[in-house]
Design goal:
CATH architecture of the largest domain: Orthogonal Bundle
Number of helices: 8
Shape: elongated
Low-confidence stretches: 1-26
Radius of gyration: 37 Å
Length: 318
């Protein structure tokens, strides 16, 4: 007689009980949609704008550090001269009259000479007092600038640490967005990657017209996080340089760029106005006719898109 092995027994038992056991099918991951991908890229661009802001803050702190360090160098020169002059004066006095100039006058029998001598001593002491006061002011100013330098350096260290963390978040968000994009069908990917690069001519007036012309000249150039030209761009970098070319200075980051202008409504929009996402994660420039020029996202280039594709906050800077 042959006996079943334990494995065979388990298999037979499972087969016999099959009519009583319902096995749930494995749940498939939800399908990634174009909206999911757009949301993921928007998250990455928000991190990029935060990083842009931290980078600008760090640059400004670097500038202040250089400025204060230069002031400290100049003050130190004055400090050393004043210190040396005071020191030399005191040393010379001790060499000539160890007990002080007044002692020598006490032996004088000439009243006029005595009075004149006292006046000279008073003048000398007054000069020394003024020099000492000036030296003290210089020392206080030097200490103040040194404290400022230390504060700026601490602030810079904080900004750089925050920028490092934000860069990691940006990299992670981009990888997530790219992974989601790769899950789309070829047709969906093609649709998302399409963009109009047909230039619009003679749009806007004055500075706005010059800004539009600059932006138009960048059509087809690639999007790069942190890009501010001359051959690659992110959204706010393109807007900053476009208006700089028109002689108008605006900040580097989306939120401050919008804040730098005058808020306008959709019905008031004119060519050259800045148009941004309500989240302040993306920005472009209105061309008129419902069209916007912008630097969209990695994998795409500067293009023209529809105003209706997420833009909802508007500002006029020129």
């Amino acid at each position: 007689m042959r006996f079943r092995t334990p494995a065979a027994f388990v298999a037979a038992t499972a087969f016999a009980a099959g009519s009583f056991i319902v096995v749930s099918p494995a749940q498939a991951d939800p399908e990634v949609t174009r909206a999911d991908v757009e949301k993921a890229f928007d998250k990455a661009e928000a991190a990029n704008e935060k990083l842009n802001g931290l980078t600008e803050d760090a640059r400004e702190l670097d500038r202040r550090i250089d400025e204060v360090a230069g002031e400290i160098r100049q003050i130190r020169k004055v400090y050393r001269v004043q210190r040396d002059e005071l020191g030399a004066d005191i040393v010379q006095q001790q060499l000539e009259q160890p007990l002080g100039p007044t002692v020598g006058l006490l032996a004088s029998q000439d009243p006029d000479l005595f009075i004149e001598g006292l006046s000279a001593i008073d003048a000398l002491n007054s000069t020394r007092a003024d020099a000492l006061e000036s030296f003290t002011r210089t020392r206080v100013e030097l200490e103040k600038r040194q404290a400022q330098l230390a504060e700026h350096q601490d602030a810079l260290d904080e900004k750089l640490a925050a920028a490092k963390k934000t860069k990691k978040k940006l990299d992670s968000a981009y990888r997530e967005a790219k992974s989601d994009f790769d899950l789309l069908s070829a047709a969906q990917q093609s649709q998302m990657s399409a963009g109009d690069v047909t230039a619009v001519s003679n749009a806007g007036e004055g500075a706005a017209k010059k800004a539009i012309a600059f932006a138009m000249a960048q059509l087809g150039e690639p999007y790069v996080y942190g890009g501010a030209g001359p051959d690659s761009w992110d959204c706010s970098g393109l807007m900053m340089k476009a208006y700089a070319a028109a002689g108008v200075s605006i900040p580097r980051v989306v939120g401050p760029q919008i804040a730098a202008g005058r808020s306008v409504s959709a019905s008031e929009l004119q060519p050259g106005d800045l148009v941004a996402y309500p989240s302040m994660s993306h920005i472009g420039m209105y061309l008129g006719g419902g069209k916007v020029i912008h630097a969209p996202r990695p994998g795409k280039s500067v293009e023209i898109t529809s105003l209706s594709s997420g833009f909802g906050v508007y500002a006029r800077v020129a």
